[in-house]
Amino acid sequence: MSLDLAAIRAAHDRIRPHIHRTPVLTSARLDAAAGGALFFKCENFQKVGAFKARGAANAVFSLTEAAHGVATHSSGNHAAALARAARLRGIPAYIVMPDNSSRPKLRAVEGYGGRITLCAPTTAAREATCARIVAETGAAMIHPFTDFRVMAGQGTAVIELMEDIADLDTILCPVGGGGLLVGTAVAAKALNPRIRVVACEPAGAGDAAESFRAGRRLPIDQANTIADGLRTSVGEPNFDLMRRHVDDVVTVSEEGIIAAMRSVWETMKIIIEPSAAVPYAAILEGKVDVRARRTGLILTGGNVDLDALPWMK
Amino acid sequence: MSLDLAAIRAAHDRIRPHIHRTPVLTSARLDAAAGGALFFKCENFQKVGAFKARGAANAVFSLTEAAHGVATHSSGNHAAALARAARLRGIPAYIVMPDNSSRPKLRAVEGYGGRITLCAPTTAAREATCARIVAETGAAMIHPFTDFRVMAGQGTAVIELMEDIADLDTILCPVGGGGLLVGTAVAAKALNPRIRVVACEPAGAGDAAESFRAGRRLPIDQANTIADGLRTSVGEPNFDLMRRHVDDVVTVSEEGIIAAMRSVWETMKIIIEPSAAVPYAAILEGKVDVRARRTGLILTGGNVDLDALPWMK
Description:
The structure is a homodimer of 313-residue chains.
Chain A: H1 5-15, E1 24-25, H2 28-34, E2 37-42, H3 52-62, E3 70-73, H4 77-89, E4 93-98, H5 103-111, E5 115-119, H6 123-137, E6 140-141, H7 148-154, H8 156-164, E7 170-174, H9 179-191, E8 196-202, H10 207-214, H11 236-245, E9 248-252, H12 254-268, H13 274-284, E10 294-299
Parallel strand pairs in A: 2-10, 3-4, 3-6, 4-5, 7-8, 7-10, 8-9
Antiparallel strand pairs in A: 1-2
């Protein structure tokens, strides 16, 4: 299997009845501060509150034999998305989640009927627990980012963004496992080979940037960042696609993520989660040049714990 | 002077270059909970973060002799809106604000170049301070809600809502001083005489409901509500128009306002201020019947102090 524009367009046709076409918002004030035009693709308004609804729906509705259900491990949004897609198709979803997942994300998975198993917050623990559950139930494993059906689904967001906004120069996309990133990069470059795709990553989970510079995958087992959707290391197939289709990877500080998140809340009056603030943090910290350019940013999700905001004492 | 649909349409033509046409958002989840279709007019995305941009712009751009500037007293959003409109026209704005105004609202007025004078948080203190400043400067007084130009400007929001969404049965609108309420009611009833307009008010500032039942204006001097935009009593011309054009006034609890605000943040991923949550609180508390109906709610603003959210301990 592989990832190309045809696969992403097929995914778009498959999932269209099950997702929102999310709006693209702009802010005169943020444009003035950045010195360029910024276009925010609002996947925080997506079903389940995150772009993950796209990839999960594509994976579940691509299954030819779905009787035994689906299983996955996820820091949260993929989990809710897979539970929702499985319910839409009428099959069980077995979800392995790290035991430091935020309460709203756990509640969301339960709310969609997902069957949760908690585990330690490491990649190794997640994968072992999930493998056991797949063996026990016969469910189809839907990996949150190395699955090509998931990558194709995630790539549908940038197609909508580029349909709505002409002549973008740059796309800024967060990177965790790299599912959204490679779906975005493959689609964007196929639609416009001159567009720049820049991955944005918390320095506290900076494996993608280090791997990109080193030319080989350097996964980390423990990440230290508030951006809970980006704590995982880049997957193997994701890294291969990233090397071919992504122009640069930049990192941002925790302070930058919090400042960016707060600025978007205060100025745009929309709720985004810390992971979604990482591309705007890259602009605030001067890591990407957006002056006199047209830049698209993917706001990946809006699921936050309102009792534990990062600027609360 | 009076208020009718022609005046509101003229206001719309006058202010259109200076305001956003804000989106109307919906939520499948909130519809399911309410048992009816809800349409949220997002004035939290308006210039200065509130519908007040409409009335202030209409007042300022209606002035024939503007040389000495404008003056007002306001709990915050009208202040920012008047400062912004005055700057657009190149005249000074003198703003009297209660000394318990939230920091973001004070900063916003300063940011638009408004000249602030603080006073005690009572209607009497505001009016006396403002009268003194008008006498000293020769500025034109633009009252936040009894000015007919302001009422006409505020009424433009519901015109957009009814253009975008056909066949609304009910409009829910917060009431403080009553500028938005009467603009909304006059425009909505002129466009569709069968539509119901229900004013929604915090019980802790419940003078509009009491006055409506008594048939005479019963202002209060001190209000006790988190909804800082709704602490003022209904104005005299506003009460007269309210009696003729508004179908009902309902009150909600402080707990209801906070629950409604939080529910909109969590579900719709948009930031609204407490005053804007009052109509949805009326639905949550069963004060209006929206089942199997199409109900429009005006989300009046999104200016909150992110360091002092009502659910923080």
